[in-house]
Amino acid sequence: MKHPEEALRAFQNAWNRHDMESFAALFHEDATFVNRFGRYVRGVEAIVEMHAPIHATIYSDSTLENELIHVVTIGPEAVVMHFWSRLTAGTAHPAGPHAVDTVILAVLTRQEGDWRIKALENVTVTDPRTGEPKLREELKD
């Protein structure tokens, strides 16, 4: 990626193609990832190992739609990015078709001219009173 904002679409496209090789290419070798359930892994190999089984099973027909919230430049070689991510699960999921919104925080750094994800954390949007997952539109008062 030549610009950090490209990560948003590249992440979405790799997910929607269920292409773990393209997914791995988004991350630095020593990147960290916290999934929406709080599981922490370190290293691109572990990130792929966490995602490959779900793309072969429950998320095999899922799609993501990402929407940029904000990019904060830390320096010429580092940014912090927040974006909405809507996961739409299909019939392969045990709960059947449904959508889940998350907010993703990603730290991207540039090395040798290319931007990659150094750290990513994914948080499910929930109702703060009940803990029940909500779509972001449902939380607007």
Automatic annotation (TrEMBL):
UniProt cross-references to InterPro entries, sorted A to Z: DUF4440, NTF2-like_dom_sf, Steroid_delta5-4_isomerase
Record-annotated DUF4440 domain positions: 6-117
SUPFAM superfamilies: NTF2-like
Pfam family, one: DUF4440
Annotated protein name in UniProt: SgcJ/EcaC family oxidoreductase
Native species: Cupriavidus cauae
Upper taxonomic lineage: Bacteria, Pseudomonadati, Pseudomonadota, Betaproteobacteria, Burkholderiales
